[in-house]
Amino acid sequence: VNYREQGVTVTQTTPHQPDAAEQQAREQALTDEVVASFATSTSDRYRELMTSLVRHLHGFARDVRLTHAEWESAIDFLTRTGQKCDERRQEFILLSDVLGLSMLTVGINAPASEGATESTVFGPFFVDDAPEIPQGGDLAHGAKGTPCWVSGQVRSSDGTPLAGVRVDAWEADEDGLYDTQYEGNRTAGRGWQTTGPRGEYRFWSVQPVHYPVPDDGPVSEMLAAAGRRPMRPAHLHFKVTAPGHRTLITHVFVAGDEYLDRDAVFGVKQSLIAEFTEHTGGTAPDGTTRDGRWAQVEFDLVLQILKG
Amino acid sequence: VNYREQGVTVTQTTPHQPDAAEQQAREQALTDEVVASFATSTSDRYRELMTSLVRHLHGFARDVRLTHAEWESAIDFLTRTGQKCDERRQEFILLSDVLGLSMLTVGINAPASEGATESTVFGPFFVDDAPEIPQGGDLAHGAKGTPCWVSGQVRSSDGTPLAGVRVDAWEADEDGLYDTQYEGNRTAGRGWQTTGPRGEYRFWSVQPVHYPVPDDGPVSEMLAAAGRRPMRPAHLHFKVTAPGHRTLITHVFVAGDEYLDRDAVFGVKQSLIAEFTEHTGGTAPDGTTRDGRWAQVEFDLVLQILKG
Q1: Nearest chain A Cα to B67, which residue?
Q2: For A72-107, how does the pLDDT look when each residue is reduced to its tens digit (9 = 90+)?
Q3: Residue of chain A whose alpha carbon sits nearest to that of B62
Q4: Rounded to whole angstroms, how far apart are CA atoms B233 and B267?
Q5: How close does chain B come to A163, measured CA to CA in Å?
Q6: Which of A168, B51, B52, B240 is the most buried if burial means most Cβ atoms within 10 Å?
Q7: ipTM for the complex?
Q8: A155 φ, ψ to 5°?
Q9: SS3 breakdown of chain B: % helix, strand, coil, rounded to 5?
Q10: pLDDT in tens, chain B (308 residues)
Q11: Helical (H) or strand (E) element with B68
């Protein structure tokens, strides 16, 4: 249709560009069609999840007017992120972490509750088959760093000590690398132990240091493009599981670390920061005589009682 | 703090559950913190993209109250989707397709414009190193199916025939499989040719059939959970590139196909549906004598002139 020949004054439209309202209606109709395709979902929850996902995903593409090149770049980014994953590396968890989705999911599912230790990100470095470490044993297992005595009590949010409960711990070495980041399937700086009769746990490991997230994957490219520091403040991971309680996934952070206010994965909470006391020589809490430098932290882990 | 002991009447809050407003504020603060972390982006566009992505991604998780198990399931799904990709399989494009994101991106970037052929999804089966097929040559190259003569004219949206322009075409065989879905790196049912002096293209291939998207990957699990049919209506893919014109990525769909109104990837447009005429024996348009059944379609490809 040639509007000019028909004597129509063309104001908001030209033959090569449908007007904005028409374009908007066409895009909305597509979103509605995709949402409708999930009406037959095998569960109400799946339909709810996918409907919201489609609306937000389409909303994003429409809001930013996603270009074909950007779409291609996103396909490539996600593909490489999946292909970077293996049994000892989880780049999609790292992506979720740096986008704050992990902390948001933590906050939705483990809202702060009085008396219980706060949760933080799980991170990409947990592995299932860590070794058992006896009370007072050596979790470092060759991980380099200043020896650090880690101890505390696991108890219920009602104050009861939790005996016989599994505490998993894992951390990077003094070079900022987890065991899984080395060649050769070594296990170091990770393990689990069972709490004693008063809910106590205690082991030797190494003093945590701040470190960059892995710099050899798509996520590090994203941080670079964002001009973001890839650093995580020094921390030790915990996972504590006890019957009748919400599983606690958290860290203890080292007080004074320069990256506490700019954690690449948004994981820091004030209540999770503890003093790591430094010593030289002398007698350690387990009665051993120490030669050089060593550190010490005490951190209690309080689990929230599950209702019902 | 025990409010009851202090004589405070607890109405909207209990020690174990912060009130909704407090929880909402905490979640919003996290989203704001993540958005702020992209303020240092190396380009304004990157900041715009990531800010919108974070807001929509977080909006999704908040709206559905994403559980930890669902988050884990999403991480696993995305990981497996990436790991299903290789040089001949692109599961993330397929995911984008079934979520309607591909068609939305097409619609944003190649809005319908009068005179030009409409665009549709690129799909996961294009490969870069397809063979050149001479005018009138055989693109099927062993792909099973009813022989089909495919021809038409490539022209500019101003009507000028486009000579010497590259036309790529690819399609599934009569079993609904692309060459890349077979073992052994075969090439069949794909190729490209250069248009003749009047913009003409013509080749033998096979009659397209409807087919299911690949059923051995995460995307097929999603379709099953959604109770969606995995079918695509019969079609042949085209990609046409010409200087000064927007690259055209489209299909020709077979009129009468039973899945035209429920394409798993939302790719059908009325203007892309054409009659595939069926014949038995006789003389084909290229002058050859045919023995059994064969089909024929004529489909012109009109490229939009780029402005500026």
Answers
A1: A109
A2: 999 999 999 999 999 888 999 999 999 999 999 999
A3: A108
A4: 9
A5: 23
A6: B240
A7: 0.88
A8: -145, 170
A9: 30, 25, 45
A10: 333 333 333 333 344 456 889 899 999 999 999 999 999 999 999 999 999 999 999 999 999 999 999 999 999 999 999 999 998 889 999 999 999 999 999 999 987 777 899 999 999 899 888 999 999 999 999 999 999 999 999 999 999 999 999 999 999 999 999 999 998 889 999 999 999 999 999 999 999 999 999 989 999 999 999 999 999 999 999 999 999 999 999 999 999 999 999 999 999 999 999 999 999 999 999 999 999 999 999 999 999 999 86
A11: helix B68-83
Tally of residues, chain A: 308
Interface contact flag, B79 A90, Cβ < 8 Å: yes
Residues 6+ away with beta carbon under 8 Å from A90: A124, A125, B75, B79
CA distance A257 to A236: 13
Give B263 to chain A, closest Cα distance, Å. 10
Determine whether the interchain pair A15/B81 forms a contact, defined as Cβ–Cβ distance below 8 Å. Answer: no
- Give tens-digit pLDDT for B112-169: 777 899 999 999 899 888 999 999 999 999 999 999 999 999 999 999 999 999 999 9
pTM exceeds 0.90 for this model = no
Q: Which two tokens stand for residue A116?
A: 């219980």
Count residue pairs from A and B with Cβ separation < 8 A. 231
**Cα separation of B34 and B42, whole Å?**
16
C-beta atoms surrounding B215 within 10 Å: 11
Give the position of tokens 């002139």. Answer: B305
Q: Choose the closest CB to B18 out of A62, A111, A115.
A: A111
